[in-house]
Amino acid sequence: MASESEAPRQLHVFFFPFMAYGHMIPTLDMAKLFASRGIKSTILITHPNVPIFQKPVEVFKNKNPNAEIGIRVLDFPCTELGLPQGSDNADFLDSAVIEDIFPIVQKLFFSTKFLKNQLEDLIETFRPDCLVADMFFPWATEASKKFGVPRLVFHGTCYFSLCVSYCIRLHKPQKNVASSSEPFVIPHLPGDIVITADQVTDNDEDDEMGEFITEVRDSEKLSYGVLMNTFHELEPAYADFYKKFVAKSSWNIGPLSLCNRGFEEKAERGKKVSIDEHECLKWLDSKRPDSVIYLSFGSVAKFSNDQLKEIAAGLEASGHDFIWVVRKSDDKGEKEEWLPEGFEERTRGKGMIIRGWAPQVLILDHQATGGFVTHCGWNSVLEGVAAGLPMVTWPVAAEQFYNEKLITQVLKTGLSVGERKWVDFAGDFTGRDRVEKAVRDLMIGEAAEERRRRAKELGDMARGSVEKGGSSYKDLSSLMEDLKKFRAQREM
Question: Are the beta carbons of 294 and 371 closer than 8 angstroms?
Answer without folding.
Answer: yes
